[in-house]
Amino acid sequence: MADSVMPGSSVKPVSDLRQAVLSGPGAEVDAVLGSSALTAVTRADTVGAVLAEVDAGGGRRRSLTHPVVTVLILGLCLFSGEGYAGVLSRLWPLLGTFNPGLLLSGPVSAVALSQARARLPVAVMRALFEAGVRRCGVEPACGQRVFGLLVTAVDGTVFDVAATRAMRTRFAVPSGGRFPQVRVVTLVACGTRRVMGAVLDSAAISEQALWDRLVPALRVGTLNMADRNFFSMHRWRTASATGAHLVWRVKNGRKSLPARVLTQLSDGSYLLRLRESDAMLRARRKAVGDPEAVRLPDITARMVEFTVTLTDQAGRCSFSRFRVLTTLLDPDLYPGATIAACYAERWQVEIAYKTIKSSLRGPGRRLRGQSPDLAEQEIWALLAVYNAVVDHAVAAAVELGIDPDRISFTTVLRAIRDHLAPVPACGHCGQRTRRQSGDLRAAIITGPRNQSRTPRTSPRTAADRQTQHTRNITYSIKIGKANLPRAT
Q1: Half-sphere exposure of residue 162: CA atoms within 13 angstroms, side-chain side
Q2: For residue range 185-226, what is the model confidence (pLDDT) as tens digits?
C-alpha cells in the first residue's frame, strides 16, 4: 500500500515515481507534492479554521464530514446548473485533503449530499466568505484609487428562491412577483469588483436598513460611493464616522435635500450646512423606537452638482444631471471635476451583480436550496466562489501589469472548471497526473482578454431594449449651479 501523508505532516514519500508504482493503475499522482486542484477555490486550512471559529466540528458522517460538505457546496456554486451527481463525480477524487478517509470509499449519493447540506450550519459558509475577505492581500496593490483612496461602492440586489411555504414565510414575495426574494447588499471594491462585505435578509427589508448593518465594513483609506436612495443625515454621519470618505449621490430637487449653501468654492462646488429634516427625524425615531429622540446636530459637507452629456456616433446627445455630497472639503486637494468623473465608478457594483447572476450562477436560474437556511447558505457560497475567481483574475493582472478589467471573469471561470475536471488516464501506464497550479495560471494568462474599456451606453428598460442597442459614446462633464437656498 502506498505511503499516506496527512496534511501538515513532515513525513514525505520517497518519490512521486514510487507513489505511482505502488498506487497501481488509475491512481492519481501529485506533480507537485501537497498540491490540490481545489486550492483554486479554497484550502483545507481555511476550511478547518472556519469550522473551528463557528464551532461546527467535523460532522459525524464517515465520508460527508463538514469540511467535505463545505467544499462540495462551493463546487455546486462553481458548477451551477450541473446536478449533484455531476459535481460529486468531478470533485470526489480531489477531496482527500479535506478527509483522508475518502481514499478508501466511493462517492456518496446525491440524496446524501442534499441531507448533509441541511446539517451544515449557515454560519459556516458566511464565515468562509468573511475569511476570504480578511485574507485578500492583492486588493491594495491593484485596486482603483482616487486621491490615494481605494474606491468602493455599495448597492443591493435580489435573488429569487423556491416558492415553498417555508421560503414564503421567511422571505417576502414582491408585489406582482411569483417567487420569494432574498435581498443582498454588498460593499464592492470598484477596481477589481471584489466583494468586501455583504449582508442579506428578506426582500421586505430595505436596502437602507441592510446598509445600516453593513456600514462597519467601511475602512479608513477608502472612498465610498452610494446611489441617491441611501442618503439620510443619520447614515451620512454613521458612515463618515468610520473614517472612510464619502461621495454619495442625493436627489436633485430643491426641497429634496435639507441643506443650505454656505459658500461657493473656487471649482464651482459648494460648501453646505446639512440639517436633519422633519421626515428624516420621524423615520429615525421610528427606526430606533424612541419618539423623543432629538434632532441630530447640523454638519458641513461639500456638494458637486454636474451635468453629464453623452454623445453617440450619430451625434445624438442625452443629458443627465447629478448631485453628489462628499466629505472631501478642500477644492484644491480634491477638484470637483475629478469627484464628478469618479462617481461613474459606482456602476462597478452593478457589473459585479451581473457577473454573479449571469456568468457564475447562470441567467434565469433560481437558487437550488428548498429551505431558507439552504438559500442563505448558497448565497454566501456564491459570494465566496465569486471572490475566489476574482482573486485569480487580479493575480493574473498583477503578474501581467495590466488593468484587472482586461482579465475576463468568464475566461478565469472556465479555466478553474477545466482545472477541476478529471484528467484522462495515461494510455500506457493507466496513471492520472493531477493538474498543477501553474497550469491554471498559464490558462488564465494566455486566455482571451476583455477589450480596453470603451465608454458605452445601453438601454435601461425592457421596452427600450426592443428598439435600442448598445452604442459607443463620448461624454463630457460640466460643473453646474445649485438651486438650493442660501444660509442666513
Answers
A1: 14
A2: 999 999 999 999 999 999 999 999 999 999 999 999 999 999
153 within 8 A of 225, measured Cβ to Cβ: yes
pLDDT score at 22 = 37
Which of these, 9, 102, 8, 6, lies nearest to 59 by C-alpha position?
Answer: 102
Beta bridge partners, 317, equal 311
Q: What secondary structure does DSSP assign to 421-477, as a single string?
A: SPPPPPTTT--EEPPPHHHHHHHHHHS-BPPPP--EE---SHHHHHH---EEEEEEE
pTM for the whole structure: 0.87
Residue 34, pLDDT above cutoff 80: no
The reply to whether 293 falls in a domain is yes
Residue 447: φ, ψ to 5°:
-75, 170
For the ranges 3-12, 93-102, 314-323, the lowest mean pLDDT is seen at: 3-12
| 113-122 pLDDT per residue, tens | 999 999 999 9
Chain centre to alpha carbon of residue 15: 41
- Domain count across the chain: 2
pLDDT in tens, 401-452: 888 889 999 999 999 999 888 766 555 555 555 566 678 888 888 888 887 6
Q: Is residue 333 within 8 Å of residue 271, measured between CB atoms?
A: no
pLDDT band at 256 (very low <50, low <70, confident <90, very high): confident
Q: Are residues 246 and 356 in the same domain?
A: yes
How many whole angstroms separate alpha carbon 38 and alpha carbon 388?
11
191 and 334 share one domain: yes
- Tell me what pLDDT residue 13 has: 32
The answer to whether residues 316 and 212 belong to one domain is yes
Same domain, 301 and 184: yes
Does 457 fall in a domain? no
What is the domain range of residue 271?
Answer: 127-360
In a domain, 487, yes or no: no
Give the cell for residue 436.
498543477
Is residue 74 a part of any domain in this protein?
yes
**Helix (H), strand (E), coil (C) string for 198-228:** EEEEECCCCHHHHHHHHHHHCCCCEEEEECC
Q: Which residue has the cell 496534511?
A: 7
Domain boundary among 327, 360, 393: 360
pLDDT at residue 95 in the model: 87
